[in-house]
Design goal:
By secondary structure, the chain is α+β, with helices and mostly antiparallel strands. It has one helix spanning 45-57, and strands spanning 12-16, 26-31, 64-69, 72-76. The chain has 1 helix and 4 strands; from the N terminus they run ββαββ. Strands 1-4 form a two-stranded antiparallel sheet. A two-stranded antiparallel ribbon has the order 2-3. Residues 1-77 form the DUF7848 domain. This is DUF7848 domain-containing protein.
């Protein structure tokens, strides 16, 4: 007797989690020159303020990266 496998293909959906109990979106900014990173916040204004302070203290630092941590969810379509 030979073992048999049964395969079942399913369709899954992926989207940002906007449910009431979802984790909040977090923002941070990172200086591309020295790698320093702002504190993480749910309010983008805080990392943005950090960038303005950081470039004021480091006038040659003009390039930054936005870091967004966004919760996602999946579910199987029926």
């Amino acid at each position: 007797m030979t073992p048999r496998s049964v395969l079942r293909y399913e369709t899954w959906t992926l989207q940002p989690d906007r449910e009431p109990d979802a984790e909040p979106v977090h923002y941070a900014m990172q200086c591309a020159v020295d790698g320093e990173t702002s504190p993480t916040s749910e309010d983008f204004a805080e990392p943005q303020d950090w960038v303005l302070r950081h470039c004021g203290q480091n006038p040659s630092h003009h390039t930054y990266r936005e870091i967004i941590t966004r919760p996602w969810r999946t579910w199987r379509q029926t």
